[in-house]
Every structure is written in C-alpha cells, then in structure tokens.
Amino acid sequence: MSLRETLNKNSAVATIVAVLVIVLALGLIVLRNQRPGLGDFEVFYYDLNTQKVFTAKAEAIPPIDSGGGTYSYPDGEYGSGVRADIYSCGDLVKVKSGMTRAEVEAAGAFIALLTRYSSEQKELIERMRTTGDTQIPGASQVENPLISTADGTEWVPALSDAGRELTEKSTEMCGDERTRFVSP
Predict the structure, then answer these.
(1) In angstroms, rounded to a whole number, what is the distance separating the alpha carbons of residues 168 and 176?
(2) Which residues are within 8 A (CB) of 83 and not within 5 positions of it... i.e. 6 or more apart?
C-alpha cells in the first residue's frame, strides 16, 4: 500500500498531523522572532563607593543598591550604583564585573559617563511603570537624567548645556579612532 492510499484511508489522522506540524512551525517562528524585553539584558553599572564596575538588569533605575552601601549625592543619600557608559577606541575590548576604573582603562576602555536619576525622577519612572500612565504630570523629567564624568562628583542634567558638553567630550576621547560602545 502506498503512502497516498494510506493517507486517503486515514484522512482524519493525516489532517491532525498536518495541523500539528503547522502549529509547531508557527510556534518556532514566533519564538525565534521575539525580542527581549527591556529587563531581559544587562548593562554596566559603577559602584561609586567600591569604585568597581558591575552588571545589572537594564530596567533598573539608577541609583541602585549594589551592595556597596549608600552614597552622598548633592540631593541626598541613595544607593551607590549608577549606570556606566563604557567605550573603547578602535578595537572591541572585554570589560568584566569587578574591574576597577584603572583595570577598565588597562583593558583598553574607559568609563565615559555615569547616569542616575534624581529621587523625583526615579519615583515618576516607578509610578509610570506601575500604572502604565505616561501622561502623569512631570513625566517629561525622566527624559533628562543626571550625568557625570567617571568620578561621580558633579551631576548635571543630560539635556543642559553642561550635559551636552560632557556628552560631546566623552565621544571625542578617541580622537580619529572609532569610538565603540562596550557591553557586558
């Protein structure tokens, strides 16, 4: 008996098998094309107390508790972990959690900028995430985090003249070489 005759005699089974294969194929396509959510990957942070790089979820709102205690910012005491933008000039380099600023530089990279939010901004972001409402009063503040050089001593709004100058200087540190973003 040929395959065609078998399928003709058992058309219900053949239909079920065909539907299952199609559903399985569609499921695989959907799974392969899903993009990770905001919190599904890690980025670099820098502990201002221990002065070491570490990784944490991208969805974390700095300053965060990194286990290094609290840090005295101009607007109060908060966690010592702040987001760190790390770059290299020319070649890609490997930066690992636990490296000091000097070790990052010895590896061929540099901490260009640190980023954090004020307590008011952090509260707004948390409220927007909880409620899903992005139209709450003051929501536009979250688009203007505070940034600093790698020493973390002076914090300025990213969209201010001083913030734009800091950002520009950080991207010019490589001169004519290509500036590359270093990710964990």
Answers:
(1) 14
(2) 43, 44, 45, 46, 62, 114, 115, 116
- Identify each DSSP E strand in the chain by its residue range: 42-47, 52-57, 70-73, 76-79, 81-89, 109-116, 146-148, 156-157, 179-181
Which tokens is 17 given? 């098998």
Question: Which distant-in-sequence residues (6+ apart) come within 8 Å of 118 by Cβ?
Answer: 75, 146
Phi and psi at 86, nearest 5°, equal -115, 130
Mean pLDDT per 10-residue segment, the chain (184 residues): 62 49 40 47 96 96 93 91 94 93 96 94 89 81 90 93 93 88 93
Burial (0-12, 13-18, 19+ Cβ within 10 Å), 184: middle
Enumerate the β-bridge partners of residue 156: 147
Which amino acid, 7? L
d(CA 44, CA 58): 8
Nearest to 74 by CA among 129, 155, 147: 155
- Over its C-alpha atoms, the chain yields an Rg (Å, rounded) of 25
Q: How far apart are CA 45 and CA 52, in angstroms?
A: 8
DSSP state of 34: P
What's the pTM value of the predicted model, to 2 decimals? 0.75
Q: And the tokens for 142?
A: 């979250």
Tokens 């590359």, residue? 180
